Amino acid sequence: MKIAMLARNANLYSHRRLVEAAEARGHTLDILNTTRCTVNIASHRPTVSYNGETINGFDAVIPRIGASITQYGLAILRQFEMSGVWPLNESVAIGRSRDKLRSMQILAKHGLGLPLTAYANDPKQAEELIKAVNGPPVVIKLLEGTQGIGVVLAETMSSAKSVIEAFRGANVNILVQEFIKEAGGTDIRALVIGGKVVAAMKRTGAPDDFRSNLHRGGSAEVIKITPEERSTAVRAAKRMGLNVCGVDMLRSNHGPVIMEVNSSPGLEGIETATGKDVAGMIIKCIEDNARSGKTKTKGAG
Fold this sequence. Notes:
27% strand, 301 residues, 5-stranded antiparallel sheet, Rossmann fold, D-amino Acid Aminotransferase, Chain A, domain 1, Dna Ligase, domain 1, 16 strands, alpha+beta
């Protein structure tokens, strides 16, 4: 098979591992810098150009689109979809997962466990938001944040109101969530591929940091998850429409609650913690599913 990967940094561990895994299984994998791709939307045949030259002949595309270029990356991915190339994760599903508010609305609709969450536009409603999630303390998140950036723990009513008012004063959108104290600064990352949890790890935040992101200095170790946690991760991936994703959960007193569904999960932490060949499993998923024109959304919607 001939596989394309949309990614800006070919040297990242995750991207190198996917290339290695693809080549080990007899495939070719070309990394295309997403920002150097352009689309021709005027022709009858949708095409993608790379560095000015039309590209074709790919059987599948792996989108590893950075959060800072989500909209541009999704436009490129849609063009691949419309030309019949099978995407590991579809553009519509990635768009859902990147919109924190929309993703939580979808998960809540289908009865999946979530922390109490509130959203409003008017900073004058700050106190109402805080009380709606049984705070303080509360966690305040930028809707566009990633890897723990733009996440603040406010421990008092006055500090929470100040943070909310400051964010809204800067005209950025935020969510306010309950603080799950019993999680103790740890969370669970369950990696789902093709409707199954294939690996799981427990992440612990750096000292004096309630965030457990590995990019923020956290640590990871292998963990055995419960049947309820496994079911929650699989159902979350299904409802978001993602073939591959990392589902981040906290262990609360009332069961697992989902913090985020990541459509481009990093592989280094999970492979190191579990010793599993996650990259190989992703390539196997492509082998089993990639068919021309099989994309559900056909790049639209």
